[in-house]
Amino acid sequence: MKRRSGLCGPRFQLAIDEDAYPEALRQGNRPPKRLYGIGDAGAVREGLAVVGARKATPYGIGCAKRFARQAAERGIIIVSGGARGCDSVAHEAALAAGAPTVAVLGGGCDEVYPIENLGLFQRIIDEGGAVISEHEWHQRPRPYCFRERNRIIAGLARATLIVEAGLPSGTFSTADEAISAGREVLVVPGAITSKQSRGANRLIYQGATPIVDGEAFADQLDALFGREADEAVGDPEGATRRRGGERVVQDDAELCLLDALRAEPLDLEALQAIARSQHEEGDALTWLMVWLAKAQRLGAVALYPDGRYGPALR
Predict the structure, then answer these.
(1) Other beta carbons within 10 Å of 191
(2) Buried b (16+ CB within 10 A) or exposed e, 197-212
(3) What is the DSSP letter of 240?
(4) Is the pLDDT of residue 4 over 70?
(5) Which of 152, 218, 285, 305 is the most buried if burial means most Cβ atoms within 10 Å?
(6) Are the beta carbons of 91 and 103 closer than 8 angstroms?
(7) Closest CA relative to residue 178, chosen from 32, 73, 27, 18
(8) ω before 311 within 30° of 0 (cis)?
(9) Is the previous residue joined to 236 through a cis bond, with omega within 30 degrees of 0?
(10) What is the DSSP string of 128-171?
(11) Per residue in 201-218, pLDDT tens?
């Protein structure tokens, strides 16, 4: 049904106490009590936020396109704000990769802004993504709404990639929201003479992870999301691996371990707690150590220098 915005597609509302409400957002800063959206509600899930300057340089546009597509090709949801510049390019790159993307608006979904992105928003909906807002359908965007919107972008993301950010800027505020929510912040460095990169470079100085090339970005995606994540989760027979068809995952208990490690690196004590909850009969520790040895041999899991286990970095 077509509404005032001109956007066509199924409409949904997700209340914070409903199972369909994204858990990552629920655990973030000041989660909205309700989300309003057009498109596929199932696309509104944890992903990678890619944000940058509205008045982006060709360098920023190129980086946003390159890294958003690299993540989208791995099946990672790209979340951004639908703004001019880097945000729009990130959404476009996800669509080009054939992956869903989520645009978070500053006003209601029937008050599209910027209006020139109406076609982009419709394509997001048509290709399996969603356009969402915490505001009711016809609420017009106000300047303060965009900064508030940024906490939703950061809350939906396991990590936020900053492509270009001035000082001050909305992009920089998204990084602040990600840090406050305990999420990872990745930053593409820029020239120290560029106004659009002052905020980005400052974030690196303050400890954010610099993304210096595609290989470094791939390493971060491996650590954050796991390698070929859809291979394990989407395979109803269990995750097949590379050597002779041997499987890392044989049952739900092993899949639970693999999913936990893909969510974040864990020490042996935390893994033992998961093992005991999943393997109530017999020696849970022995079962865990046998599985960890197999997963490391097959290249799915690695022991990190700090003593934690996590996805193997490649």
Answers:
(1) 12
(2) bbbbbbbbeeebbebe
(3) B
(4) no
(5) 152
(6) yes
(7) 27
(8) no
(9) no
(10) T-EEEESS-TTPPP-HHHHHHHHHHHHHTEEEEEE----SS-HH
(11) 999 999 999 999 999 999
CATH classification for the domain delimited by 229-311, as one of 2.60.120, 1.10.10, 3.30.160, 3.40.50: 1.10.10
Q: Which of 94, 104, 97 has its CA nearest to residue 22?
A: 104
Whole-angstrom distance, CA of residue 298 vs CA of residue 168: 46
Q: What are the tokens at 242?
A: 């590379």
Q: Which amino acid is at 247?
A: R
pLDDT of 170 reads: 75
The 10s digit of each residue's pLDDT in 231-253 is: 433 333 334 333 444 677 777 78
At residue 10, what is the residue type?
P
Q: How far apart, in Å, are the Cα atoms of 68 and each of 163, 165, 238? A: 10, 16, 28
The structural domains of the chain, with segments of one domain joined by +, span 11-225, 229-311
Beta bridge partners of 48: 78, 159
CA 228 to chain centre: 15
What is the spatial distance between Cα 211 and Cα 224, in angstroms, rounded to a whole number? Answer: 14
Structure tokens at 123: 């394509």
Same fold, 11-225 and 229-311: no
- Report the predicted TM-score, pTM, of the whole model to 2 decimal places: 0.71
Distance (Å) of CA 272 to CA 140, 233, 269, 283: 51, 22, 5, 11
The one-letter code for the residue type at 94 is: A
Is the distance from CB of 108 to CB of 133 less than 8 angstroms?
Answer: yes
Q: Give the model's confidence band at 283: pLDDT under 50 very low, under 70 low, under 90 confident, else very high.
A: confident
Assigned CATH topology for domain 11-225 = Rossmann fold (3.40.50)
- DSSP letter string over 215-269? HHHHHHHHHHH-TTHHHHHT-TT--B-SSTT-BS--SHHHHHHHHHHHHS-B-HH
